Structure prediction request, 412 residues.
Amino acid sequence: MNELRINGGRLWQSLMDLAAIGATEKGGVKRLALTDLDRQGRDLVVEWARAAGLSITVDQIGNVFMRREGRNASLPPIVTGSHVDTQPTGGKFDGNYGVLAGLEVVRTLNERNIQTEAPIEVAFWTNEEGSRFVPVMMGSGVFCGAFSLETAYAARDLEGRTVLEELERIGYLGEQVPGKHPIGAYFETHIEQGPVLEDADKVIGVVPAVMGLSWYDCVVTGMEAHAGPTPMGLRRDALQVATTIMQETVNIAHRYPPYGRGTVGMVQVFPNSRNVIPGQVKFSIDLRNVNDELLNTMHEELLAFVAATRRESGLAIELERVSYYPPCPFHPDCVDAVRAATGKLGYSSMDVVSGAGHDAIYAARVAPAGMIFVPCKDGISHNEIEDAQPGHLEAGCNVLLHAMLERAGIAA
Prediction:
């Protein structure tokens, strides 16, 4: 069993075949959730699964579970998967790799006539990207009870179409109640979507946790005035005050390394005129860290700085936390299974805490979960130029294979 390996060329070809559905001129993929292209992508994966002898179950939010039976049908399945929907300017590997790596594990077990003790399943979750419908990670979120099926069904795209209508239209409105599908353990294999592994020249990222995040909307209100006649000391410049908060966002992150993150990604300046002192600035704040204590400390420091700035500047400053996802530590048994498989196979590795959200976050609420990262070129993802080396993808799938076998057991 130590010599067992997947077929890297077959995995790569499957990725390229799926990427042809919704292919863009720049080499990426546009396959938004619950569109006709998403249906075609889903249909292709399900066709491959059936060819590999897997049975198919679809739940009421369109999550798909593809099952390879084990010797003991009473055991909950060891599940792997991700998603097949993409960003509007997405790449070939984000999400798709995790699904097709799972399918390649099954194909390898079939070829070697290996029966597992527990069943093995490959899943793909609905609307992970959140590009067409909000909330993000919709299918896995409904599955774990983070929000209701009714909330998901009512979500609308920019043209007014609802999730329920589109699930019905593309033929993926299943019957199983979300969350009623048992999971013994869950693994998700993914490109890193960051530069850490490539920078360190490591092949495998062992993922012990996913960062938590706090999102805020901040509004600073001053007064518009002519840029020429108004002396500096008499100005109520909303932008200059806002920039001090923006800088403090970055400073807070620097105070809590190595996983502190602070980002201002969206700014709206009113009236946005060259010779008018800005009267109002609206901007986003994104804080992240690896545990609740650190993230809460960063939150409190931001509140304190905003309060002090409000007093010192005399301007009105509103700060509202609009979203919060707690940090997600993965189960030690699953992390250890990934670490052990990586060591057994002889791949270079390091621990990498994920800064991005994944379906594994929600799966971890209902079952032991873990993740495997492989490098992506220049750390670029959510971009048509997203790229990964075939050898790295093969290595990650080999780790997945052995980690799943460790959890599923091999039938005597």
Observations:
- The chain has twelve helices and 17 strands.
